[in-house]
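To assess whether the prediction recovers the assembly geometry, we first specified each molecular entity separately, as shown.
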Amino acid sequence: MKRTYIPKLDDILGGGIIDNASVMFSAVPGVDYEAFGYQMLNGRLRDGDKGFVFTNVAEPETIIYEFRSYGWNLEKFLEDNRAFFVDGTSPFMGLPSDAKYSIEDYSQVEEAILEAIEDVPDGIGVINNLSTLIDYLGEDETINIIKKWNLHGKKYNTSLVYLFTKWDYNFDLVQNLKKSMDCVVEIKTIEERVIIGQGFMVAHSSWSKPSDTMVLFFVVQPGGVKVYIPKILVTGPYNAGKSTFVKKISKRSVSVDRKALSAFPTTIALDIGHLEYKGFIADVFGTPGQERFDLLLDVLGRESVGAFIIVDSTAPQTFARAKEMIRKAKAEAIPKVLVANKQDLPGALSPEEIREKMKLGEDIPIIPAIVTEGKGVTDALEALLGLLYGD
Amino acid sequence: MVIELIVRISSGIPGLDELMGDGGGSFVDNTVTLIYGPPKVGKSIFSYQFAYEGLRNDEPCLYISTDYGLKDMERNIANFGWNLDEYIDNETFYLIDAISTIAGVEVESKPNYFLASVHNPTDIMVKLGMAIRQITSKASRFRSVLDSLTTLMAFNDEVLIVRVFTVYIMRIKESGGTAIVTYTEGSASCKVENMLKAIVDNIIHLDGENLTIEAMIGGGKIKAHYDITREGIIVD
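The predicted structure of the complete assembly is given in tokenized form:
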């Protein structure tokens, strides 16, 4: 096994990748994912392996510069002849290329990469970018060539890493590409009007049974791919059951309550919980319902990737306040689920009635719940994960 | 009955708004317009005017430039007596510069200035996402310009650029933007040209003498004479 040097990915894959694996990072357009390939290459080079980069998206100089911005010294490995470029960019721009292999015509690309694979036995090759290759070579030709490269990789014990941007290709092509690989890592976005987060999940691997967990990440310079624990916001009007919801959804939680002055303890700062569900990890923040704490909503909302809006189904007079809180938490711009709590009480409105009264679009799931009994809590979580995972 | 109010935004081209909608603006908000025609008929100038009109009215602009870097753009725009600096400094003008890295120009980094390469559409889309995220956090409405598709097609396979363009349109529309996109007539195959026309909302043709609105949401076909003056394009 070889490490991927991507945090969390090795765990999900059962320790790393098999030595001669073909791995495809498949990303929706707009996700910053080139770093995945470069980070793997850098880690392997640092550990003494050999490697190459095929590029048809930037000249070698630019890629060296990108490595430097991540804090990785590719030049040193180039000087030591442990790394080299297969340059499919410079000749097309009329620039001179001093790369070990340079491609002047796409008919040369198959042979050049076969040779490059032989040059790095037990090492790694990064292909950036597979999509650009497809558009030049055609779909069938690309699949054929990839199969040959992957076979060659097997023979020389070389890992091949493909960076693939999933433009609107037809379904069959994408399926065929996936089938040609030992491992596919999907890189997705969390969006609500704009991209607010990005995550990766392993779609399949030939050597392990990976969990279908999405790991959220960002790319930093210097540093590369870093995973982070996302925040989930729980908000809603006073006495809707937010604190109870945070407790029920979390493995552990703390609440900053003011118990002394009232028979009903109320949250005056925050409920904080930690959630782990089917491999998905998040910190949960419950806000106070009273208006004088609305300042917190803005701060918490801005950093969250998803929100639960809790309402008391028997109290339609508070719905306007719930909508106001959505707006103040900037929760219009994050995926959200409405939890229709207190369904067991007389006079509770049904989810449909609440949707009507609050004028909510069909894209916002409304989950009936009795939070005190834990009913509907898992459904609400499933609904939010469905929105975050986007399928 | 629900009456939807159609919001029109001003083109920044003197004479055009009057021609198209009683002076109430030219382009329907949240649409994408293709500006096409032979070389040197004013497509980029049209783009500058559209962008500048928005900036003057506090609408941020996200400009993807494939032909001119920041310095060149500032100079081109200054030729018409307009000043970009103010909007660069107050961070309402966002530029994705897809040419300077290729030209080897060193540029200082700013939060509203992104370097990309015409060769790397994947990276352009990443920068687009980053810029949109910043812009939408401070404004609900913004303008975008992509100048030009022709250059992207010169450096990439045409069909790939149609795919990229589709994503661009989706991202702009989802986030509340209104865009114009330039393309030099005849630089791609007929098939690709038709695909481009099919995926935009509005189409304007410039030929150096006449401006023809070939398709427009909420409007008919219009043809009018225009001149390129020291104050930019003026429609009679």
